[in-house]
TrEMBL record:
<comment type="similarity">
    <text>Belongs to the dicarboxylate/amino acid:cation symporter (DAACS) (TC 2.A.23) family.</text>
</comment>
<keyword id="KW-0472">Membrane</keyword>
<dbReference type="GO" id="GO:0015184">
    <property type="term" value="F:L-cystine transmembrane transporter activity"/>
</dbReference>
<dbReference type="GO" id="GO:0015293">
    <property type="term" value="F:symporter activity"/>
</dbReference>
<feature type="transmembrane region" description="Helical">
    <location>
        <begin position="167"/>
        <end position="184"/>
    </location>
</feature>
<dbReference type="InterPro" id="IPR001991">
    <property type="entry name" value="Na-dicarboxylate_symporter"/>
</dbReference>
<feature type="transmembrane region" description="Helical">
    <location>
        <begin position="31"/>
        <end position="50"/>
    </location>
</feature>
<feature type="transmembrane region" description="Helical">
    <location>
        <begin position="355"/>
        <end position="372"/>
    </location>
</feature>
<protein>
    <recommendedName>
        <fullName>L-cystine uptake protein TcyP</fullName>
    </recommendedName>
</protein>
<dbReference type="GO" id="GO:0005886">
    <property type="term" value="C:plasma membrane"/>
</dbReference>
<dbReference type="InterPro" id="IPR036458">
    <property type="entry name" value="Na:dicarbo_symporter_sf"/>
</dbReference>
<feature type="region of interest" description="Disordered">
    <location>
        <begin position="448"/>
        <end position="472"/>
    </location>
</feature>
<feature type="transmembrane region" description="Helical">
    <location>
        <begin position="6"/>
        <end position="24"/>
    </location>
</feature>
<feature type="transmembrane region" description="Helical">
    <location>
        <begin position="62"/>
        <end position="88"/>
    </location>
</feature>
<feature type="transmembrane region" description="Helical">
    <location>
        <begin position="325"/>
        <end position="343"/>
    </location>
</feature>
<feature type="transmembrane region" description="Helical">
    <location>
        <begin position="205"/>
        <end position="226"/>
    </location>
</feature>
<feature type="transmembrane region" description="Helical">
    <location>
        <begin position="100"/>
        <end position="123"/>
    </location>
</feature>
Amino acid sequence: MNIDWLSAAALAVVLVFFIIIFILQKKKVNFTAIILGSLVVGVIVGIIFSGHTSWVMPIGKIYVSTLNAIVSPLIVVSILSSITSLGSTAQLKGIGVRSIFWLLMTTLLAILLALGLGLTFGIGRNSYLSLDGIDAQTFKSKVVPFTQVLVGFFPRNVISDIAEENTIPMILFAVLIAVSYVLVANENREKVIIFKKFIEAVKEIIFKAVDFIISLTPYAVLALIATATGNGISRSGIIWSLLALLIVSFIAFALDTWVINAVLIKSFAKLSPVKFFRKILPAQVVGFSTQSSAGTLPISTGILLGKIGVDPKVANFTAPLGTTIGMPGCAGIWPVLIAIYGINGLGINYGIRDYILLAVISLFVSLGTAGVPGTATITTASVLTAMGLPLELIVLSIPISAIADTGRTATNITGALVASAIVGRQEGSLNDNIFNDIEAYEAEIDEGNGQSGEMNDTEPDNSVPVGAGCRL
């Protein structure tokens, strides 16, 4: 049996840093600082042990799997808890319509940005792409017709939907049950109060589990980044022709995340973009590391509740919805740039009408995504097929896809957080005292200040465990 001693050495180094992380957590060092430090160390380990991080990889995989396991019950319970707390079905209608609109709007803006950058820089031009010998059959099974996507939105078997992490069917089922609760409660609240108490109890238990999982985030960040960096560098010899695509992708991610979203936050949420981005940084870092929008959901929700001041009714509805509708990175920027790269590289003659169609198709595809690693492959396959472009382009992009997925996911998460903040403002339920870190606000809660009923809505049980787990 041959032992890869470099892989063993990489694991040993990582374990040493795990001990350091444990000590720092015991000393109550800032959680965000620990995560950022883990990210830097992960990059260094990946560079030093390039191509030899296979023993480190399972650590990150286990974390992501565990985090994903809690996501399905978290989504169902969060939506049930949120909607059953609504005063009327009219309020649900307002939140739902606004959430979908802003999630799609963030994606549409990302698509237009990608079109502009891709055409301006001419990515793929003069690259003379060759698709000979590349097998794209593997990706054909990933293409899902839009009609099938539409049918798949609706629940068939709630147990299998939860097991398979079919987010939209779970959301629709939870909405159906919750709305039914509201209708019955309007007539006779006492008859269904036990159901509400049960949901709140389950929610508290799940968020306690989430709190524990989140506390392990720095360890996972180190392992995941080390693996991604090590694998990326070991493949670097074959990605020179895609380097321009990768650079333009990250330019697009950065502009969408910090420029377009800054305008949206300032114009529609009426919040300071600088302060907003500082508060959501932990979610961006975890998304960058785990490459999972759904896996980052507990952290995103905690930030919305405890740092941005979004009402639980909005945060617990819009944030989960943002893991499957919209996703400007995976369903907006990336498929469009891959398409343009292929169009230019293969010398295909595309006109304005074709690019408009590309934008429309990408937006439709964004209606049925899933916030887990690999989403971009599915969305890109669907877009390329709909546009009549070869699926082999996906195979060509594999060497840089893992690197790009870090930026894609952070962009997805930022878009969902921005949409949640805007919806909260438009619903009139965004608490500026929480966002502005006004200390007197906590004193008001303690003293009641004659608003105990309102404060109960803005300081629910579910905001405390997640916020504490993030050390925000």
